[in-house]
Amino acid sequence: MIRFILLFGCLLPVYRLHSQSLWSIFAGNGTGASVPGSEPTSPLEMALPNVYGIEVFGVDVFFSTVNDHSIWRMDLAGKSLRRVAGNGRLGLSGDDGPALSASFNAPHEIRVDPDGNVYIADTRNHCVRWIEAETGIVRRLAGDGSAGFEGDGGPGVTARFDQPHSIVLDGEGGVLVADTKNHRLRRIDLKTRVVETISGDGKKALPVDGKRIDEVSLFGPRSLAIDDESIWLVLREGNSVWRIDRKSKRIYRVAGTGKKGHTGDGGDPLVATFRGPKGIAVDSRGRLLVVDTENQALRVIDRGGNTIRTADIGFQMKRPHGAAVWPSERGDVYLVSDSENHRVLACKPVPRE
Q1: First-to-final CA distance of the chain
Q2: Given 83, 164, 227, 301, which is the most exposed site by the fewest CB atoms within 10 A?
Q3: Which pLDDT band holds residue 2 (cuts at 50, 70, 90)?
Q4: What is the largest CA-CA distance in the chain?
Q5: 331-338 and 323-328: which strand pairing?
Q6: Burial letters for 292-323: b for 16+ Cβ neighbours within 10 Å, e otherwise?
Q7: Residue 6 contacts by C-beta under 8 Å, 6 or more apart in sequence?
């Protein structure tokens, strides 16, 4: 018999109880088709076709869906889920017009600034776009729409990227971009709109542990997270997790040997293996959530205890991609996009201890 729990003010079905976690379906009806439109609907009734990115902002959470090229906004009370960008059709159109009328191409990760402006890695359009909070107008921040590598030192709109999968606001007036197929980490200054490469030389090689970020290679930078002291970087092809010290500008390996596998649980994260990791988030205790995509798993790195484990979710996931943390009064709630099952999963609050 299926039981239910109350999470964010709504009843969600629970399929398994574990001593440390309680996971449920948070949004998505498990089907891969949706009907374009912006009318609110129940999160559990709405199709989220191949949901990727997740971003929590205040009392709302944003999702990107790859198959219908859209961005969604859901209130954490679970009362409504609405499309806020994308007309459901693949393309690159609509800049300087209403976001709901614009076309995107497989948008991946999303970020929201303190003013509510939404930044989107429009991955297969090879650009970064943003939506003004007050007007709902979508604008181009960087990328000319063609795959390539050029434009450092110049305006973002004339620069070229190659499948940027992840973006993050650096808190210092810039947007960091994981320029995945160019094997580089780039930065867009939000005031001047100038683009520059801050790490990576285009070579398909792992960084050298402890070196300055402008002296290393980055093999497939795929996902970014940030806190006051660090920039966290997942290398998909590099099957590893790295930390950039924001003060010293040096990079350090945190987890993964670089080889493919699913080993190391219960031990030192440095000797663990991953298989195509594609998402990362940081909780309030500094634990890292790493979406180990091709292992169909969520890995949790406890930096204080120097251990890694595979989360016992209780669902059979299918190529999960994104992760986010919502810091509730009772503890952190973990969210994971179970991408090819077309749904988002949520864990009950994890005590901060």
Answers
A1: 32
A2: 227
A3: very low
A4: 60
A5: antiparallel
A6: bbbbbbbbbbebeeebbbbbebebebebbbbb
A7: 12
CA distances from 134 to 117, 131, 137, 231 (A): 8, 9, 8, 29
**What is the pLDDT averaged over residues 284-294?**
96
CA gap 217, 196 in Å, rounded:
16
Sheet holding 174-179, edge to edge: 164-169, 174-179, 184-189, 195-199
DSSP 35-66: ------B-TTTS--TTEEEEEEETTEEEEEET
Q: Is there a contact between 328 and 310 (Cβ–Cβ < 8 Å)?
A: no
What pLDDT, on a 0 to 100 scale, did the predictor assign at position 132? 97
Task: Please state, in angstroms and rounded to a whole number, the distance separating the CA atoms of residues 223 and 281.
Answer: 9
pLDDT tens column, 184-199: 999 999 999 999 999 9
Between the alpha carbon of residue 245 and those of residues 232, 269, 283, the distances in Å are: 9, 18, 18
**Dihedral of CA 130/133/134/136: which sign?**
positive
For the residues of 180-248, what is the DSSP string, one character each? GGGTEEEEEETTT-BEEEEE--S-SSPPPTT-BGGG---S-EEEEEE-SSEEEEEETTTTEEEEEETTT
Taking 50 as the threshold, does the pLDDT of residue 10 lie above it?
A: no
d(Cα 253, Cα 306) in Å, to the nearest integer?
A: 13
322 within 8 A of 53, measured Cβ to Cβ = yes
pLDDT at 99: 98
Tokens of 276: 């195509």
pTM: 0.92
